[in-house]
Amino acid sequence: MSADKKSKSLMDVIELEDFLANPPVDFTVDVRGTGYRFVEYDCDRCCVFIDEIQSAKGKVIFQNSPGRAIKVRTMKDYMQVRKNITSKRIYILVSACEGAAKSKKSKDAKALLELRKYIVAIDGSNPVIKWELEKGLDWTISSVAGESYRVDIDLGDIVNSWVGETFRIPVEGEKVTPVWKNTSFTVKYRSDALFDVSHWLGRSKRQFKIQGR
User: Rounded distance, CA 111 to CA 206, Å?
Assistant: First the structure.
């Protein structure tokens, strides 16, 4: 769970401040005059889908990151995104949360308190991961028949599997098993169809999960 510069494993889960203090290979962190941190990386080796962050030590900006949602307008754009995420290392920001008191509106619903932020790095070129990405994207395209759509690519299951059930975060003298949130990134495709009714009605939303096995 630490930022090892030599680490090239299938997956890493690194606390945000550890990542910034000791960035992995392909990353550099520059502290600018106003105090914010500007993170540069090798775009030929990394796909970073992280929005601007307000951390405990100030603003963090990842150079050239499109944020958590990647917008494409043509099949050429789509094919380039597909090629990138299946040939490079993918980085997203996730939240480790603690289940808080039950909501007054529902006995089952729970509010979540964010404990820490982590950066998840996953090797999109790994044969198993690549196959799952391609399978999910192909299924999405075939199911929307040329319409506009959005597809959420969820890494929640593989994060849970990777860190294991024994992973704990110390909170006020206790060790808490986190609930992982914000574990997906999104590809949004906007077609030129004049009557994109399904998209307008929110029916062209898709999601698939990466299992890594």
Answer: 25
DSSP H or E stretch at residue 53: strand 53-55
Two structure tokens written together for 32? 């600018």
Q: Any residues with CB less than 8 A from the CB of 157 and at least 6 apart, and which? A: 209, 210, 211, 212
Supply 36's token pair: 């914010």
Q: Residue 146: what pLDDT? A: 67
Mean pLDDT of 172-197: 81
Backbone angles phi, psi at 118, to 5 degrees: -130, 150
As a whole number of angstroms, the distance between CA 25 and CA 5 comes to 5
Kindly report, residue by residue over 86-133, the tens digit of the pLDDT: 999 999 999 999 875 444 444 444 567 888 999 999 999 999 999 999
Quick check: 145 pLDDT over 70?
A: no
User: Which ranges constitute the DSSP H helices of 62-200?
Assistant: 75-85, 127-144, 156-163, 197-200
Cβ atoms of 70 and 92 closer than 8 Å: no
Average pLDDT for 63-80 = 91
